[in-house]
Write a structure and sequence with these properties.
The protein has 357 residues and is an alpha+beta fold. 28% of the residues lie in helices and 16% in strands. Helix 2 crosses helix 7 and helix 3 packs across helix 7. The two termini are 24 Å apart. Bound molecules: 2-oxoglutaric acid (AKG) and fe (ii) ion.
């Protein structure tokens, strides 16, 4: 397994593929309230909703990187176990559990090239009803996963604090919504994409916007692509050792009345020499409780109040089901939900849109 801290044991990411130059925000500076770093964070959250977060020198940053590396090993043990064993933990209606390779479709209606295990946060933290059956390899590594989850949640909280300030919201607005004390559908998502047959390369995970609030993503091998605002050309994100990739999800667009952005992204086979590598990723998907309202926040001087809410007054739980139903009906639900960066209608086949996280 390649290292998340250095690129020396990973085949090189090629220099000749189109990449997006995401800003690199320093967690240490954010944590100490650095103004310029905070402004850079807010700018990218309104433009693409994506950025790299440098963890290396932040307090606890290296501990998190080490734990993520260990968590990758745990997921590798799970994904390399026999299919019949993995299938004993099937996908639940909440999208948690094991999604087999090919369990969803890609743009052309063919099966995806990605297997996923979603570990519910509530189960890890002992909140709500915990009648989930957890695969033994994840179950026996709970201490590691809980520590890793708490660190990723704390990273998301730091981002929440800066967004509160820039949106002129009362302190702790987003933090309180996402408190670890409340039951929520948040999860740790482990993904595995094996190398593909070079003569038959297809999208591994189709285009989507994340339907939570903030995703803290770790990957080592390339393949993640973003469709930048006002563009029809997918661009690769070049993984940077020591950094997480952060992206905002749909709730942030709703609550901010479109000031923040949740951007379309997908995963394709790794480029160049990386194509022969197994690709593992870990996404901490921070979500609000199911009963949380999705209406835009009627506070502060930044969130526009004059327009209609995109999704009307509904709870997060209802929003989640509506989005999934819309996708089933073939409705393009991304074009008015991505936020400020969008002023052209993106032409995407509705079949490409799926609520994956
Ligand atoms: O594997 C990746 O790099 C991205 C995964 C992703 O977009 C997701 O889990 O929602
Ligand atoms: Fe995603």
């Amino acid at each position: 397994m390649p290292s998340i801290n250095s690129s020396s044991d990973t085949p090189a990411f090629p220099g000749d593929v189109p990449t997006i130059d995401l800003p690199r925000i320093d967690l240490k500076k954010l944590s100490s309230g650095d103004k310029a770093e905070s402004n850079a964070l807010f700018k990218t959250c309104t433009e693409t909703g994506f950025f790299l977060l440098d963890l290396k020198v932040a307090d606890g940053g290296n501990d998190l990187l080490k734990e993520v590396e260990d968590a990758f090993q745990v997921s590798k043990s799970f994904f390399t176990s026999p299919e019949e064993d993995k299938c004993k933990f099937p996908l639940l209606p909440s999208n948690l559990g094991y999604k087999q390779m090919g369990g969803t479709k890609i743009e052309d209606g063919s099966p995806d090239r990605c297997e996923i295990y979603g570990f519910p946060q509530d189960d890890l933290l002992g909140l709500g009803e915990s009648n989930n059956r957890i695969p033994p390899v994840f179950d026996s590594n709970r201490a590691l996963l809980i520590s890793c989850l708490r660190r990723m949640h704390s990273v998301a909280e730091t981002i929440c604090r800066h967004l509160d300030a820039h949106l002129d919201l009362p302190r702790d607005t987003f933090e309180a919504i996402h408190s670890l004390d409340k039951a929520s559908p948040s999860s740790m998502r482990f993904l595995h994409m094996p190398p593909q047959e070079p003569s038959n390369l297809k999208t591994s995970l189709m285009g989507h916007t994340d339907n939570g609030s903030i995703t803290v993503l770790f990957n080592i091998i390339g393949g993640l692509q973003i469709l930048p605002p006002h563009s029809c050309e997918w661009k690769y994100v070049r993984p940077k050792p020591g950094c997480a990739i952060i992206n905002l999800g749909d709730t942030m667009v709703q609550w901010s009345g479109g000031v923040l952005r949740s951007n379309m992204h997908r995963v394709v086979p790794p480029p160049g020499a990386q194509a022969a590598s197994d690709r593992y990723s870990l996404a901490y998907v921070l979500k609000p409780p199911k009963e949380q309202s999705m209406s835009r926040l009627k506070m502060g001087r930044v969130i526009p109040q004059e327009e209609e809410d995109f999704v009307g007054d509904c709870t997060y739980g209802e929003f989640h089901s509506k989005k999934a139903a819309g996708v089933r009906e073939g409705k393009n639900l991304a074009d008015n939900q991505e936020g400020k960066g969008t002023n052209v209608k993106i032409q995407i086949d509705p079949q490409q849109l799926v609520s994956v996280a």
